[in-house]
Amino acid sequence: MSTDRHTAGLRYPLGVVALVVAALLLHVAVGQFVATTAITGFPMWLPIAGSLGETVLVYEWGVMRFGFALVPAGAFWLGAQYERTNGWRRRKSRENGTNAV
Asked: How far is CA 73 from CA 22, 79, 82, 83, 87, in A?
């Protein structure tokens, strides 16, 4: 088994892990930003939706939408790409009687 093939096989599972970690970091960062902003006020460059509470809800909704919809969709896409690139190797190795990973 070559190292290059093994590394290429880990690319997509590590992509899923990175996607989940990015979602968690985004959630923590927005939470920290909202907590800080509630005390100091919103920066002038940041779009504001009505009152402070409405603006917080809009940004929190965006983060929740990312975590709820885009992370599973991205994980599904990465899984499909993983199967597309690595699944044929496993099927072909079974046909040939070898055990390639």
From this structure: 14, 10, 14, 15, 20
pTM of the model: 0.58
Q: What is the pLDDT of residues 83-95, one digit of tens each?
A: 887 776 666 666 6
Question: Domain for residue 101, yes or no?
Answer: no
C-alpha 31/C-alpha 12 separation (Å) is 29
The DSSP code for 44 is: T
- Using only the alpha carbons of the chain, give its radius of gyration: 21
Counting the structural domains of the chain, the total is 1
Q: Is 37 exposed, middle or buried (0-12, 13-18, 19+ CB in 10 A)?
A: middle
